[in-house]
Specification:
Elements (H helix, E strand, L loop, with lengths): L2 H5 L5 E5 L3 H12 L3 E5 L5 H10 L6 E2 L10 E4 L8 H7 L4 E3 L1 H8 L3 E6 L4 H16 L4 E5 L17 E5 L2 H4 L8 E4 L13 H9 L8 E5 H10 L6 E6 L7 E4 L2 E4 L2 E5 L8 H14 L3 H10 L8 E6 L2 E5 L6 H8 L7 E5 L9 H6 L6 E4 L4 H11 L5 E4 L3 H11 L5 E4 L12 H13 L2
Parallel strand pairs: 1-2, 1-4, 2-3, 4-5, 6-8, 6-9, 7-8, 9-10, 10-11, 11-12, 16-20, 17-18, 17-20, 18-19
Antiparallel strand pairs: 12-13, 13-14, 15-16
Length: 448
């Protein structure tokens, strides 16, 4: 598919599966371009879809029953729908081109695109990269979007040849892309989303697509790059490694500084957000941006992190309450726990089961926490892992709902201790997203 096909969408017949946030923006874009649009969503009734379209001022789009077929030029899938789903295969069997909101953006966007993916840290790294580039080149022509919550296509028409877009990209979004960002980064790769992907090989392969299709530079943590070498079909000429070991070429954190190609760029002490993983996030942003040290330092001194990521909510009853609702995998929880070494911790775990292994997390809880409160769909799976792997000194409390879990965590904690929401699980069994879970945690705490 070439750029010209997407630059003239007038009269193009487009089937859109899913009416989430990104596809609402997509439909608005297609409508403005004069496309003929058919919308389907298996979770919404035809009346609900019609109401959404009318509220968006979209009058030409037609609602199509989910399993009905129609001949179209393009089929746009929502990220949560696998490209090999039966409804997708049925809709593309007559030759329609399968694509998505992100892929359309990559085809029509002007300027330079910086893309970040990874199992952990991609939202913070995306935000950091955006803040650095915004400070370097100005806010009027620097944009951020993607999996971070802002549909990319919503600002596509605002871009010019001098524009800069920073985007966070999930494995779901990357599965079918045929064009890479100009500058790409893979923060790290660990077990995730195995409820969606067939196996780790498919998950890793999706992540590595960010570097395969015309990428000018790839920034990757040294261990993640081993995956890229195995899975990517093509590699960019410019590869920047990040590491906590000495490097002559690349970005590394060593002896109190983040260095690039051996030159000291940023004193680590200037980074306000805690944790080794945030140092890694800064290294990735430095590798992507080529910003001068004064710009990097200015951002480091004011950047306080992103909401729901080891966020200090408040201190009450002599207890510190932290919200890390974004922690949807064991590796994320372990990274957050590393920021709270030697604290008396009550950890809230559990949620939607993404078919992940909790044994390593359970083993490492021995020296990290005093009490664990478990709730959610996978609570018995986590409890079983703790029973098998963790020490007997850890007190475990099982709960039926989220509010009960938070209240029990408060009740069993003492003055000077920390209550940490770091679920190591997705939120979809109880909430629409991790933001809703984190906000509910904060609401409960603030009402104490």
């Amino acid at each position: 598919m070439n750029n010209a096909c997407f630059n003239d969408l007038k009269g193009a017949r487009c089937r859109v599966f899913g009416l989430g946030k990104s596809n609402e923006a997509l439909i608005s874009y297609l409508d403005k371009k004069g496309a003929e649009i058919y919308v389907s969503d298996k979770r919404k009734s035809e009346n609900e879809i019609t109401d959404v379209l009318q509220n968006k001022g979209i009058k030409k789009a037609r609602v199509l029953p989910y399993l009905d077929t129609v001949n179209t030029d393009f089929v746009f899938r929502t990220p949560s729908l696998r490209p090999d789903a039966p409804e997708i295969l049925s809709s593309t069997s007559s030759g329609a081109f399968l694509t998505s909101e992100v892929e359309l953006f990559f085809e029509v966007a002007k300027g330079k695109i910086y893309g970040i993916t990874g199992s952990d840290g991609k939202t913070t790294t995306t935000t950091l990269t955006y803040e650095i580039l915004k400070r370097q080149f100005g806010k009027d022509n620097t944009f951020v979007g993607g999996n971070i919550g802002i549909p990319l296509i919503s600002f596509a028409d605002k871009l010019n040849d001098e524009s800069i877009t920073v985007c966070e990209l999930s494995s779901f979004q990357l599965m079918t892309v045929k064009r890479s960002p100009n500058f790409s980064a893979i923060t790290n790769i660990s077990e995730n989303h195995l409820d969606y992907h067939l196996d780790m090989a498919e998950y890793i392969g999706a992540k590595c697509r960010i570097a395969e299709y015309g990428c000018e530079r790839l920034v990757a943590y040294d261990k993640a790059f081993n995956y890229v070498k195995s899975y990517a079909k093509r590699l960019p000429k410019d590869v920047v490694f990040t590491s906590f070991e000495p490097l002559n070429r690349g970005v590394n954190a060593y002896n109190g500084y983040i260095c690039k190609n051996g030159e000291k760029i940023l004193p680590i002490g200037e980074i306000k957000v805690p944790g080794k993983y945030n140092i890694a996030n800064f290294m990735t942003a430095l590798g992507l941006t080529d910003a001068p040290s004064e710009v990097i330092g200015a951002v480091a001194r004011v950047f306080k992190g992103v909401e729901h990521r080891n966020e200090l909510v408040c201190q009450k009853r002599g207890i510190s309450f932290y919200n890390a609702s974004i922690d949807s995998t064991p590796s994320r929880t372990l990274a957050t726990l590393s920021c709270h070494a030697n604290e008396d911790i009550t950890l809230i775990l559990g949620g939607y089961d993404k078919n992940l292994d909790y044994s390593e997390l359970a083993k490492r809880l021995n020296n990290a926490v005093k009490r664990v409160v478990i709730v959610g769909e996978n609570k018995n799976k986590i409890k079983s892992a703790i029973d098998s792997c963790a020490g007997k000194d850890i007190k475990v409390y099982m709960c039926e709902d989220f509010k009960e879990a938070v209240m029990i965590a408060c009740d069993v904690s003492r003055q000077g201790s920390t209550v940490l929401l770091s679920p190591a699980s997705a939120s979809f069994d109880m909430f629409k997203g991790f933001e809703y879970r984190g906000n509910e945690f904060k609401n409960i705490i603030n009402q104490l």
